[in-house]
Specification:
CATH topology: Hypothetical Cytosolic Protein, Chain: A
CATH class: Alpha Beta
CATH superfamily: YlxR-like
Number of strands: 5
Shape: globular
Helix content: 25-40%
Largest sheet: 3 strands, antiparallel
Order of helices and strands: EEEEEHHH
Number of helices: 3
Distance between the termini: 33 Å
Strand content: 15-25%
CATH architecture: 2-Layer Sandwich
Structural class: alpha+beta
Length: 85
């Protein structure tokens, strides 16, 4: 019996496989990055690939809450503008 690990959106709390989410990583050196294809080591937070969740993430500064520090506005802008898709 194999179980597929589920991830949870930090905004809406929806659970699904990691392919349904955008991952933001706080690296060991304290920087932040949006994980695209290459795995980045560090603490991760998942956000639905849904425009409402992405906008609410920026509005509520959800990443600041999850990482317990100020996340640069560039990370929020990258997520909201969706240039990754």
């Amino acid at each position: 019996m194999s179980s597929i690990p589920e991830r949870t959106c930090i905004v809406c709390r929806k659970k699904a496989g990691k392919e349904n989410f955008l991952k933001v990583v706080k690296t060991k050196d304290g920087g932040f990055a949006v994980q695209r294809e290459k795995k980045i080591d560090g603490r991760g937070a998942y956000i639905c690939k849904d425009s409402e969740c992405l906008a609410k993430c920026q509005k509520t500064k959800a990443l600041n809450r999850v990482f317990k520090t100020n996340v640069p506005t560039e990370i929020y802008e990258d997520i909201l503008n969706g240039w990754l898709w």
